[in-house]
Amino acid sequence: MIFVNFLNGQILLIDKPLYFTSFQAVNKLKYALINKAGLPKKFKIGHAGTLDPLASGLLLVCT
């Protein structure tokens, strides 16, 4: 996988687990990409809509 493409703007689909907030799921992904792929710390990432913490499901994440 080429991680440089994440800087150009991508849509990622994440299966958000139960009891995680959307913010927590995005933060875990952000720090995983920063630490594993060597992306810059000011890497922008965010979700396209909030899921309830008591719901699991598909979360759209945009870079």
TrEMBL record:
One of its GO terms (cellular component) is nucleus. It comes from the Eukaryota. It is an enzyme of class 5 (isomerase). Signal peptide: none annotated. GO terms for biological process: mRNA pseudouridine synthesis; tRNA modification. Belongs to the pseudouridine synthase TruB family. One of its GO terms (molecular function) is RNA binding. InterPro entries: PsdUridine_synth_cat_dom_sf (IPR020103), PsdUridine_synth_N (IPR002501), tRNA_psdUridine_synth_TruB (IPR014780). Keywords: Isomerase, tRNA processing. Residues 43-63 form the Pseudouridine synthase II N-terminal domain. Its EC number is 5.4.99.25. This is tRNA pseudouridine(55) synthase. Pfam families: TruB_N. Transmembrane segments: none annotated. The lineage of its organism: Eukaryota, Metazoa, Chordata, Craniata, Vertebrata. It comes from Hucho hucho.
